[in-house]
Amino acid sequence: MKIINGTPATKDHGKSRQLSGSDIYVIVLGSLMLIFCIIGFGTLLLRNCNKNEVKTGEIEGNCNKNEVKMREIEGNCNKNEVKTGEIEGNIEQEPVEMKDAVRLGTIKLNNENS
């Protein structure tokens, strides 16, 4: 039997041939990979849509981050209250002495060539 261009030259040359086991394996594996890619990209697109929805604050419940930011929280857990210095209590800051301020001042670098 002669082999022409990688295919055996038989009497039924040019007709459709039967798929072997490796051909079926490649087809099934390729179709599964294609399906998983479509599902993966679809979930990425849906996650991006959900992120925009959270930013606009259209979700009801405790998971609404914008609602938590806008709500006035009572107690010491309010970080904005801590930043503005509206804490009541016995917290006192010791005055900084002049020698400490000089010690914490700018350090001069000697860049001169001797």
**Helicity range:** 40-55%
Computed CA radius of gyration, to the nearest angstrom: 36 Å
Strand order of the largest sheet: 1-2
Average pLDDT: 64
Terminal CA distance reads 93 Å
Beta strands, count? 2
Basic shape: elongated
What does this structure look like?
With 114 residues, the protein is mainly alpha-helical. A hairpin with a 2-residue loop joins β1 and β2 (7-8). The chain has four helices and two strands, in the order ββαααα. The protein has a two-stranded antiparallel sheet with strand order 1-2. It has a domain at 22-57.
List the topology elements.
Blueprint: E1 3-4, E2 7-8, H1 21-56, H2 65-70, H3 79-84, H4 98-103
Antiparallel strand pairs: 1-2
What is the structure about, briefly put?
The chain has 114 residues and is mainly alpha-helical.
List keywords for this structure.
4 helices, elongated, two-stranded antiparallel ribbon, mainly alpha, transmembrane, transmembrane helix, 4% strand, 114 residues, membrane
